[in-house]
Amino acid sequence: MASASLTVTLVSADQQVWSGEASMVVARTVEGEIGILVGHEPLLAILSSGEVRITLLDGTKVVAEADDGFLSVDNDIISVVARRAALV
Amino acid sequence: MGAQLRVYRQKIKSAQTTKKITRAMELISASRIQKAQARVAASTPYSRAITQAVSAVATYSNVEHVLTTEPEVINRAAVVIFASDRGLAGAFSSQVLRESEQLSELLRNQGKDVVYYLVGRKALAYFSFRRRVSEQSWTGGTDRPEFDTAQEIGDALLSAFLREADDGGVDEIHIVYNRFVSMVTQVPQVVRLLPLEVVEGEASDVPSTLPLYEFEPDPETVLDALLPVYIESRIFNAMLQSAASEHASRQKAMKSASDNADKLIKDFTRLSNNARQTEITQQISEIVGGADALSSAKN
């Protein structure tokens, strides 16, 4: 794969909650938890409410609470879109 | 003090008081425009992400959805009007109401029944004064729209759209709101919300190879969940634009009101000076006349 990191944006209805580079994103979809690494195939999934865990390049973790949203992956660009989202 | 002079002084006083109020409203609106514009900007990533997702589903799967299919016959159309809660905002509410009247006439000429959904106290007042009925209305908070309100409106519109026409449902939905162009221009805008025509917000460069999308759980469910959210975000965007326009429009109206008050004060000050001078001149001529009469009587 071309790039070695994921570009992640986490947005809620009224603002952008977080954005940056990451190495892994774990989110809970309606079918269960899904982990996304670099080079994942394009995906559009509905999220059930729960945590979104983002592992940054240096290994630190960002955890956010997302409610009522969806996750899209396309060319290592991940957007987590939720009506309500907040960092924990 | 002469009666005329007193009247002018009263008028000056009243113009000054009015000016204080309008000046204060002007300043308040000016400070809120910034905030309202910032909120429009802050909500853009959300609506862009949703638009992209919706167009991804539309592009990479061929799913027919009830919200995107044009009904064969359209008998009832809904018009959602976004006005303001308070007046003193120039042509803000009236221009959006005028626009919606034109739209309704157009729809009626096409043989459709028109039902109204109103947002903002001014729109409601316009309707109740003319004894016209509206399907549903929301008041309060037009200058600081909350996402919850957008969600409520979205739910109401969706359920109306999904009902049969005989059952009080509608076949298409239009929204009319003021679009914020700049501090001096706000244009009333008519958008057909449903049935949906998905438009990509920006001209995206199409990748050479279309990626194979995976949908979880499946395209239908994803679309089912996405479209209502898309509609909500469109409504929320309309509300935010409308709020920014309201502040801009109010600031402009209040600025010209303050300027007019200034002019009135200047005019009345001139008139009152004039009246005072006339009074003094008269008094002098009376004294001179009186003295003259006395001295001529002595001789």
TrEMBL record, chain A:
Alphabetic keyword roster: ATP synthesis, CF(1), Ion transport, Membrane, Transport
Main subcellular location: membrane
InterPro entries assigned: ATP_synth_F1_dsu/esu (IPR001469), ATP_synth_F1_dsu/esu_N (IPR020546), ATPsynth_dsu/esu_N (IPR036771)
Record bears the keyword Transport: yes
One GO term describing the cellular component: plasma membrane
Superkingdom assignment: Bacteria
Domain ATP synthase F1 complex delta/epsilon subunit N-terminal: 6-85
Molecular functions (GO terms): proton-transporting ATP synthase activity, rotational mechanism
Pfam families: ATP-synt_DE_N
Membrane topology: Peripheral membrane protein
Signal peptide: none
Cellular compartment(s): Cell membrane
The protein's assembly and partners: F-type ATPases have 2 components, CF(1) - the catalytic core - and CF(0) - the membrane proton channel. CF(1) has five subunits: alpha(3), beta(3), gamma(1), delta(1), epsilon(1). CF(0) has three main subunits: a, b and c.
NCBIfam families given in the database record: ATP_synt_epsi, PRK13442.1
Family: Belongs to the ATPase epsilon chain family.
UniProt name for this protein: F0F1 ATP synthase subunit epsilon
Source species taxonomy: Bacteria, Bacillati, Actinomycetota, Actinomycetes, Micrococcales
